[in-house]
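Support request from a user on the community tier.

User writes: "When I paste my structure tokens into the form, the page sometimes reloads and wipes my input. The last time it worked, I copied everything first. Here is what I submitted, just in case something in the input itself triggers the reload:"
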């Protein structure tokens, strides 16, 4: 899905950022990453100012994930909406019963099972897709925390 493609892009960007922190790799292009701009901003600053810049950097790196979390929530709610629609389709034919004939009840049960299938499939799809996407963005959040912790430990070494 588009959210997974965005996750791949964010992972690639975060990898570029983390290469600057953990391996000190220099960029071949003139593109300046957030962490590079962070290091240029903290030179000569006191500890509290460095810590404020570090908090801002962590927020900026984490805020990139907000669209993914919106998609996770939307997928879950679409699954629940499909459940409600499926139950409506399942219960709709009950109102049309005028008499209790076995033939009518057989058709009614067939129609009701179709509505129940819609309800269960949409619930399952919404739950699975939101859980998979949630795991992907959890991995991104963990990588951001590792970067911030690594940078934070550098402050205490200075």
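"...and here is what came back when it finally went through:"
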């Amino acid at each position: 899905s588009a959210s997974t493609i965005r996750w791949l892009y964010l992972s690639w960007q975060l990898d570029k950022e983390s290469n600057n922190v953990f391996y000190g790799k220099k960029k071949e292009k003139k593109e300046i990453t957030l962490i590079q701009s962070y290091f240029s901003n903290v030179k000569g600053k006191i500890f509290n100012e460095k810590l404020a810049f570090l908090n801002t950097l962590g927020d900026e790196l984490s805020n990139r994930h907000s669209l993914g979390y919106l998609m996770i929530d939307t997928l879950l709610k679409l699954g629940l909406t499909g459940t409600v629609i499926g139950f409506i389709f399942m219960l709709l034919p009950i109102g049309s019963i005028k008499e209790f004939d076995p033939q009518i009840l057989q058709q009614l049960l067939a129609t009701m099972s179709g509505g129940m299938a819609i309800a269960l499939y949409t619930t399952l799809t919404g739950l699975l897709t939101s859980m998979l996407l949630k795991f992907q963005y959890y991995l991104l959040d963990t990588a951001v925390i590792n970067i911030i912790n690594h940078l934070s430990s550098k402050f205490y070494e200075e």
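Agent notes: The reload is a front-end session timeout and is unrelated to the input. Residues 98 and 104 are 9 Å apart (CA to CA). DSSP finds five helices and no strands in the chain. Escalated to web team.
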